[in-house]
Design brief:
The chain has about 325 residues and is of the alpha/beta class. The protein is about 40% helix and about 15% strand. The strands form 4 sheets. A 7-stranded parallel beta sheet has the order 3-2-1-4-5-6-11, with helices on both faces. It has a two-stranded parallel ribbon with strand order 7-10. The protein binds nicotinamide-adenine-dinucleotide.
């Protein structure tokens, strides 16, 4: 298949690109690199530095026939979305609309969209399934929800097939430290830089952490399967307190961790866990990586990343 991945220089996108190339697909990536890095992009992918709101993207659709578009580019900082609602809406709503409109006009058959647990807001029950009330508590969650509606209308008017995947907290190699979602990456950067980690609140708040390669696998399955249910949670359905994450990191690093507490963020939910039954049955998918293994792989990546420039410097100095 010929596949366009928006946000393919980012954390999740770059793992998706690696997997698609492994499966012999042709992959085109667009990313404006505002939060991603060209170093993340597999050499075998074709890369264009484009903003998803730009009208120049049309040339790409004109010159390629994409069988599917995987739309991951977004402004991902939920807390910042409250301070910068226009920036968030410009990328997440107007940028997504630009991509959806091009997909309709150039007859792309399949659209896979990265939505989020943020659409649910404060859990009314746990685990949250796809029928949980949609009451986002930040602008990021609103922007993710709005695009879900646009996709439904796009399908009605054009027949374009779409799948909406609502991810829980994704973690793994290449992650930036933005917002609550990036808490494992943030902790690891703090530890590797020999700083104390900062836990907001008492650390008893829970999250449903899913490893990035399991997310990439779910996305790639959506290319092959034609699920009857178009909206699916992608999660582990396991609730883990932040304090336990700190212990698992301590174990993986085999060294003591200095920890300090800061006040809890007012907008952060206390508990989170998402039901993944629909994805299990519709995609024949399940999360394969347990948290110890995922954190171990993430630690190995961050240590290597920290060592890399030093090694280059050492080589220069020889
Ligand atoms: N990481 C998580 O835990 C999580 C959870 C739920 C949903 N999601 C969704 O998954 C997707 C990928 O998230 P991620 O964690 O990999 O974030 P990321 O920031 O690493 O990746 C997003 C990419 O989009 C690019 N981008 C941003 N604005 C752009 C624009 N206007 N034009 C072109 N490119 C642009 C960034 O440079 C970045 O490379 C996002 O849509 C996010 O909302 C992520």
């Amino acid at each position: 298949m010929n596949i366009l991945v928006t946000g393919g220089a980012g954390f999740i996108g770059s793992h998706v690109v690696d997997l698609l190339l492994k499966k012999k697909h042709k992959v085109v990536v667009i990313d404006n690199l505002c939060n991603g890095s060209i170093r993340n992009v597999n050499d075998r992918a074709i890369f264009f530095r484009f903003d998803i709101t730009s009208s120049s993207i049309e040339a790409l659709f004109r010159n390629n026939h994409f069988d599917a578009v995987i739309h991951l580019a977004a402004h991902i900082d939920a807390r910042a979305s409250l301070q910068k609602p226009l920036l968030d809406a410009r990328t997440n709503i107007l940028g997504s609309l630009n991509i959806i409109d091009l997909c309709i006009r150039y007859k792309v058959k399949r659209f896979i969209y990265a939505s989020s647990a943020a659409v649910y807001g404060n859990p009314e029950y746990l685990p949250m399934d796809e029928r949980h009330p949609i009451r986002p508590i930040n602008n990021y969650g609103i922007s993710k929800q709005v695009v879900e509606h646009y996709l439904d209308v796009a399908h009605r008017i054009s027949g374009m097939e779409y799948v909406i995947l609502r991810f829980s907290n994704v973690y793994g190699p290449r992650q930036g430290g933005m917002g609550e979602a990036g808490v494992i990456a943030k902790f690891l950067r703090q530890i590797i830089d020999k700083r104390p980690i900062t836990v907001n609140g008492d650390g008893r708040q829970t999250r449903d952490f899913i490893y990035v390669k399991d997310v990439a696998k779910a996305i790639s399955l959506c290319l092959r399967k034609r699920p009857k249910r178009r909206i699916m949670n992608i999660s582990t359905d396991v609730e883990i307190p932040l304090n336990q994450i700190v212990e698992i990191i301590r174990h993986a690093l085999k060294e003591p961790i200095r920890k300090k507490h800061a006040p809890a963020h007012p907008g952060d939910v206390q508990r989170s866990r998402m039901d993944n039954h629909v994805a299990r049955t519709q995609l024949n998918w399940h999360p394969e990586t347990d948290i110890e293994e995922g954190i171990h792989e993430t630690v190995v990546f961050f240590r290597k990343q920290k060592a890399a420039p030093k090694r280059r410097k050492e080589l220069r100095e020889r």
